[in-house]
UniProtKB/TrEMBL annotation:
It comes from Paractinoplanes ferrugineus. It comes from the Bacteria. This is Nitrile hydratase alpha /Thiocyanate hydrolase gamma domain-containing protein.
Length: 124
């Protein structure tokens, strides 16, 4: 697991990339949001997140005061239940991004304009 100021382990980085892509898909597509609300556990599985057998997935939709950190997302996911943080709205207007930039965010590619978005969601 990643500690503050440390580069994420490959498995952690893969998890964070999938998590970020999942958030963007919910913000970008109302159908994805409906699927998330209907069955958060199945949505997490479909997004490629590691859901442990018999472990509950709890959805948190509240806006955060500040940024999510990689450590917070990993810790909350790996606790006694999986906590899936998906704020109801992104911290920026993602409609301002073109398809290439959205794909870069979903794929975890670091580009200057895209880094701002990822920092709003996950501070790696």
């Amino acid at each position: 697991m990643t500690t503050a100021g440390q580069t994420p382990e490959p498995a952690d980085a893969e998890f964070l990339n999938k998590y970020t892509a999942m958030m963007v898909s919910v913000w970008k597509d109302e159908n994805e949001e409906r699927k998330l609300l209907a069955d958060p556990r199945q949505f997490a599985v479909d997004a490629g997140l590691p859901v442990a057998e018999g472990k509950a997935v709890r959805l948190e939709r509240g806006q955060v005061d500040g940024l999510f950190t990689a450590e917070q997302l990993l810790s909350d996911w790996n606790g006694t239940e999986h906590v899936l943080h998906v704020p109801e709205a992104p911290l920026i207007d993602i409609s301002e991004l073109d398809e290439r930039e959205l794909e870069s965010v979903a794929g975890g590619v670091a580009e200057s304009k895209v880094n701002i978005i990822v920092a709003c969601v996950v501070n790696v």
